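I am hoping you can look over what I have pasted underneath with an eye to the fold:
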Amino acid sequence: MTASGLTSGFLIDALPSASAAFILLGAALWIVVRRPSLGMIFFLVLFAFAWRLVSVLYIDVSGPIFSDQLERNLGPGLAAVPIAISQGLVVFALLYSFRRERIGRLVDVDGSRQESRSLPVGISFANLAFLAATLFVAGLCAELLVSGPIPLFAGIERFDYTRLYGGLFHLRLMDWGPMLAFQLGVFFAVPLLHDRPTDWRFVALFGALLLYLFLAGHRFSSLYVYASFFVMPIGAVLTVCREAAARANKILRLLTIAGGVLLGLTVGAVVYSYIVVRGEGDALRAKLTERVLVQQGEMWWMTYDRVFLHGDWGARHAAYKLFVDPFDPARNSTMQFLMEQALPLQRAHHILAQGSAYTGGWPEVFFELAGPLGGFVLVALSAIIFSEFMFLLTRCVVQERFVTCVFLTPILYALSITIVSGMVNSYVQVTFLIKLILALLVYVAEDRWRSSLFLSRRSADCKKEA
């Protein structure tokens, strides 16, 4: 066969994967450019989708490629097609939930929103939140200075630092950090709803958190997650902030600059980790290629090979390992199950016992549970639940239901982690049910309190008019 024939055959084989990937990436780019506020709300998801899809496409068109983590060749194939369809279902659900006519009804026109910005004792929610967050960040810094070596300078991995030196404040940050970042974003952006300048005190606190994470040995994943949760409520406010368009545009420009700085910081952290912490400077290029273009998509490729190409899936076994008998019930059982499927069992358990896990999990978990057709049904259901919850949370931010937002953020974190990494075992835990019940009770209680404030104000206005 001639070289031109080989090239033609390669292009034909790669066309389905490339087309599916470019359509999904184009849709994500359209959201970011034409509806930037929506892009901010779903930055966590859209970025994760784009990265994984590019990785899967790279394996599809460049395979066979050797994976160091799996110790086997991957590709070529059409694995990008089903994952692009799965991601497309989520994007469609998000656009439908956040259609413009529905967003137009988000703003509370009865004026009660402005009556709930202060506590009954006269202290504003913003000042109370700033004081609490400042004390927490101060506690973090004090722990870092007195509890042991600083990981960035001592070349200690973040997992080892948490296990050996992590104090009370550090451990709480590891559990609740992204949710704290979300609250900081809420109080930063909410003044825009009243045509007032944003509260930059909370940006300073967020910057202090990022600096702490950097010093504590955290790299891309942590900085990316924290930044994503911080900009979510900002995007929620900007969806309805038409009267402050000039300020909104300024914020978008500043966030773009801050994102560039964060990207540079992240790249520096990753390079420092490979050269100094892990001592792999000589193989830096190969390691980064493996990390960026292979590891993000390799677990999906294994599921695609098992489920779509060989029909090797079992709902009963998958459900048992996910919900009943995972290797470590306190962690993401999806990745534990996928690693057990992809690696020799002893090696998988050795890696998991060290606190590490591979990248992936969504949408793999749904196809492992329901097969090549039923998996799309589960993907669609998860997309609807996630998008509708995000609309509810946006409504709470816009209407300044601050207490409700606090109790909704643990649920937000669970749903976001599901869409990004496929974690599903958190939903069968009693603690998650308690979080749901508490969030519902708080929502009802805050709604009644806000209504009483509004009625009191209306009654006072009527007396003045009389």
Observations:
- The beta strands are 65-67, 72-74.
